[in-house]
Amino acid sequence: MSAPLMGLLLLVSVVAVPACIVVVVLMLRNPPRSLPGICAVLALLFASSAAAVYCYGWFSVTLGGPFPELCEDRNGPGAELASLKQEYWPLRNACIYSDGSTVEHVSASINLFVYVPAGLAVVLTCAAVLLYRRARHLPGGTP
Question: Which residue, 128, 131, 85, 88, is CA-closest to 110?
Fold first, then answer.
């Protein structure tokens, strides 16, 4: 992906997170509460936060990132660091040594700050759809 596109996605995600928080607070304060609507907005909140964190990590890798400090100049057998290979998904770094050995580094924060909110977004989206369909089929139910 190009930097302008990722920058735009980062900007939209960073703006969407507080907007979703405001919408959820307003939905909770003003009855009638629409449970499918609240689930949908929470799904958007979690998806936007996961996208914002991923874009931040992508820019970190693109601009040199924190990963080069993780690679040692020499590995255990004494081979020198030959090159670095950085990948954008998942945000990881491989230290390639002159003897052909590699050491990969994947940030643990990726699991916590990208995978968990993205998974919650999928679950909340499914819940919103199911609740909406159930409310639509109930007599007198409003989504």
Answer: 88
